Amino acid sequence: MAIISTVADDFDGSTPAEAVRFSVAGRDYEIDLSKEHRAELDAIMAEFQDRLKKFTDVARPAGRAASTGRTPARRSSGSGVDASTVRLWAVENGFDVKDRGRIPVEVMDAYRNRGKKG
């Protein structure tokens, strides 16, 4: 014995219909639609995407940090100390350091040993 399943449009019960998946604002949906209702949904989604283009052209993909045009946050020198703090200390203690780039090893050593008596 065979089982025959018929998918009907969720709006008006017409057949044939197909399951259609779509997402809006991060929420996923599934609905059974006839060809006519599918065309209507496609037109709405196309208009929606077209109207959002102004925003999607400048938006970043989810999960990535924002670029604000401001100076980046302070970065560690890789040794667990704040590079800006080391640079400030170095200038106050007579070392010649640049505003950007790698901090010289001798400056890092002096900073680490600043509290030690020798």
TrEMBL record:
Keywords: DNA-binding. InterPro entries: E3-bd_dom_sf, Lsr2-like_dimerization, Lsr2_dim_dom, Lsr2_DNA-bd. Residues 81-112 form the Lsr2 DNA-binding domain. The keyword DNA-binding applies. It comes from Micrococcus yunnanensis. This is Lsr2 family protein. Gene3D superfamilies: E3-binding domain, Lsr2, dimerization domain. Residues 68-79 have a biased composition (Polar residues). It comes from the Bacteria. Residues 60-80 are annotated as: Disordered. One of its GO terms (molecular function) is acyltransferase activity. It holds the Pfam family Lsr2. Residues 4-62 form the Lsr2 dimerization domain. The lineage of its organism: Bacteria, Bacillati, Actinomycetota, Actinomycetes, Micrococcales.
